[in-house]
Amino acid sequence: MADYTLPELPYDYAALEPFISGVIMELHHSKHHQAYVTGANAALAALAEARESDNLASVNKFEKDLSFNLGGHINHSIFWTNLAPATGARPEGELAAAITDSFGSFEKFQAHFTAVAMGVQGSGWAVLAWDSLGQRPIIVQFFDQQSNLPAGLIPLLMLDVWEHAYYLDYKNVRADYVAAFWKIVNWSNVSDRLAVAAAQTAGLLLLP
């Protein structure tokens, strides 16, 4: 079984400045994300050892460790690709149409997403996700890395609101960090994720 590995960023650590500093990006990627990768691999190894030794007394702990750390690995892997050096772009095509259909307008979507990001209590994420059952985009909160996650959602756009994602740049003013996020969203990546998610889940409603 292959280990999880830390993905390379598609840009330099300083590429998102002045909205996210190179210092934060390097710490966030090389330290925090790497810790989730290491933790996920350790949980998998512990579960394998538990099966091999027929000692499953600690399996609940190992499963929780896996859920938390693998959630952190997956969330960050998506988050990095959701970002790009500032372009001033906005959603276009099918993504723009889906946002308007589901939220009324881009401005209403942006306000809703921002409110969700600001409303996360403690550590977590604001997420635009594809609802594979309803066949539409919805906005949800993740608490920590994995809690409050309905099954069947496919993340399209994720914003990390753990304090380690912004504290060196914005101190405790999360609102400024969320406002800066909109300057560096990679809408092309979000659009590609929507196309794949919609195509792969279109048949789910037809299942008996």
Question: Could you give a short account of the major beta sheet?
Answer: 3 strands, antiparallel
Q: In CATH's first tier, which class of the largest domain applies?
A: Alpha Beta
Class inferred from helices and paired strands: mainly alpha
Distance between the termini: 34 Å
Tally of structural domains: 2
What is the share of helical residues? 40-55%
CATH architecture of the largest domain: 3-Layer(bab) Sandwich
Count of helical stretches: 7
Would you give the CATH topology of the largest domain? Answer: minor pseudopilin epsh fold
Q: What's the gyration radius in Å?
A: 18 Å
Major sheet strand order: 2-1-3
Could you give the order of the helices and strands? HHHHEEEHHH
Give me some keywords for this one:
208 residues; mainly alpha; Helix Hairpins; minor pseudopilin epsh fold; 2 domains; 7 helices; 3 strands; 51% helix; globular; Superoxide dismutase; metal-binding; Mn/Fe_SOD_N; metal ion binding
What this model shows, in words?
α1 (22-53) packs antiparallel against α2 (59-81) and α3 crosses α4 (106-119). The protein folds into 2 domains: 20-81, Fe,Mn superoxide dismutase (SOD) domain (Helix Hairpins); 93-206, Iron/manganese superoxide dismutase, C-terminal domain (minor pseudopilin epsh fold), CATH 3.55.40.20. The model has no long low-confidence stretch (mean pLDDT 95). The two termini are 34 Å apart. With 208 residues, it is mainly alpha-helical. It is 51% helix and 12% strand. It has helices at 22-53, 59-81, 93-103, 106-119, 167-170, 174-181, 187-201, and strands at 124-131, 136-143, 153-160. The protein is built from 7 helices and 3 strands.
